[in-house]
Amino acid sequence: MAQATAAGTAPSKPVAFSKALALLRGCGVDFCETALVGNEEEALAAASKLGFPVFLKDVSVPACVSAVHKYKAGLVLRADGQESLAKAYGSLEAAHGSLVKKRLLEKKLTVAIQKEVSGIECLVGAKRDPSFGCIVLFGSGGISAEELGDVTLRLCPIGSAEAELMIKGTRVYSRISKLKGNGLLLRKLADAVAAVSNLIEGHPEISELDMNPLLVDESQERVVAVDARMVYSASKKLTGKNKRAAATKKGKPADWKSAAVSRFFGPASIALLGASRDKESVGQAIMRNLTLGCVHRCEYCRPFFGKIFPVNPFATEILGIKCYPSITAVPEPVDIAIIALPSHLVLGAVEECIKKKTKAAIIISAGFGEFNEEGKRLQLKIAEKLEKAGILLLGPNCLGIIRPQNNLNASFAPSTPPRGNIAFVSQSGALADSVIDWSIQARYGFSSVISYGNKAMLDCYDFFDFLATDEETRAVAIYLEGVNSGSAFFERLKALVAKKPVVILKGGRTGSGMAAAATHTASLAGDARIFEAAVRQSGAVLVDTVEELFDLAKVLAEQPVCEGNGIGVITNGGGCGVICSDYCEELGVKLPQLQKGILKAFDKSGIMHPAYSRRNPLDIVGDALPDRYGLAASALLEEPYIHGLIVIQTMQAMTNPVLDAKVIVDAHRQFQGKPIISCFMGGRFSKKGMHYLDNMHIPDFNDIRKAVVAMKALIDRGEFMIRLQKAEAAAASAAAGATVTKGRKKRKQAGKRR
To answer: Each residue of 613-635: pLDDT tens digit?
Structure first.
């Protein structure tokens, strides 16, 4: 009996166990010895051939997609002889009949007779997500798999190397790693995960499958599946031809928008439809940002370089600039049209922009997809018209775009932030407003601020190609609530992260958060666990707070990555060293012990206090002056097993924060390939030292945990870059090998013809 999995989705149907078994074995999965029988006599013959003890398992076709827990329903029984087998078979028949009456199983009884196998229970599964595509899962298996929740996910396809990383990210791996021959077992387990990934990728009819349990058997050095469940979907796969047709419109490639977004960042002219004389209006705020660079004055405000054309049929001039009754009346070309009108007037304004042949449009106005169904229809109609005309659309319901280097503030933000090397991409305009206000006080610079709102045409990932090649941008910070296409987001994010570090904060990761997201910017968040897996697999950093978003973006923009996981810690307070050690252990940051050579150098220096700790963290004692900090920093960074440094300063009577900061900067100049994170714990009397560090691009935190989190991000980025380089080298080697093989075949064929 077919059943729809959800409203509006294609119907699905369970697959017969025999079919699932054949597919899994066909892709290389080791499945335990299994005989399928239909009556007690056949069961006895199969068990006698396999050898007792055996398990009897009801593998009849489910009558609906909903899973039946076989163990809990009494559908898996053990038999150690003929008598117990007869009893078990009778029990299975009774349990099966009960489930047939409940319409959970088909009437025909099929029983699997399996030789008893033991081992650590794991789960390997896969599903086809409507947004992100094929997902593969690994974790703790058995009857309590759901309760344990010990799983990791990856987007398909993955190879065995990625599968190994996936397995190591679970709690069950700690048990597997203690087994004899764990290296071989890990490889076999990874091969099984990769096989399932390839299976669902290559069979579009499969909507989900799992093997539970998949047993890791130490005694036999075997990874063996004992049960499987598979569901088919009736939805049709797009052929290559259909995919290309769906991705192309009016002869434009699917990625034409990504290639054209640079139009937003260097316009020569801007028209503002909805320019206003009302000082309290959005139209006036945008005019002030264009003409002055801000609504609220600050040292970073600069007027726009290009031409500004206010459009308002009821005004002759606004802020001293000539006003036009419509955009079509503007006598010169218009690169960007900003629309800040009531929603019911926006469609007419868009049609005029199409006549004017503007290159891009920013719709600030709200009242569209985030508001109601009528707003959704209007939003779709506007986007379709603009896309057909080849005009880019940002928004609606967005703040706009700010590009400090070009004196461009095409938004209704309160002011212009400092120029910097971090791009901020935000689905929420209100959050961007507050961040801009904070950035001016914190002197936190941005290369661009991009608020994209309802993403009617452009989603965040449409800007990734531009940001990847933007010389002004060294790191990217993103706030989002959902994406139009999970697979497009993942592929573009991978490409961006390969070139620049990316930090992401996602709203709508909980049930209540998703409800809020739906009403805020017309976005429904997908499954949080899949999204998190996609971000981490791409190499981006996923954070939980706004503060962490910008802390880590700055660290990754300003500091070199760690080339290994081995960090030195310097502190003038023993308690702070203990706290730092605890955080390092929690977050997986390794603190190598100091070798004899460096300790001898400290002992002979005449600078180090006799009571210094002689271990890592290096406690240089409370009376430490700058020379002691300088000695410790340079000596530790010179050690080949130290790949980064955390420097903690507590404020003592003799502490000189500015001079301490200067010796830290000197050490960083001397060892530019190794990152330094400082933690000047204090306030008023440490402030000048903190400012000096900030000016010299040494990240400083007043909290030890934040410093360790920052260093962990640099370690993770370094490990990711090493994996990426290895993968690229392997791909290049494989391509070169294929070319050589092809050349040999051609020469061989040519020889035969001669």
So the answer is: 999 999 999 999 999 999 999 99
